[in-house]
Amino acid sequence: MTYENGMQIIYDVLKKGVFVEFRRRSHYLEGPYKSQREAIGAAEDHCRKLGWDAEPQQG
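The structure assignment produced for this chain is given below.
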């Protein structure tokens, strides 16, 4: 899976949330999430709702 240029997902181990940087906008998904994997999945789903196409472009 390829992230867009500038897209970042950072798990917050203290609060069990996740920071998302997507298309120059910052978001924080509070959770709490049971694991880092679950938090990253939620962040990726959030980015899909904002227009991210996770499938690599064929050229």
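Interim note for the steering committee: The two ends are 16 Å apart (CA to CA). The longest strand covers residues 17-22.
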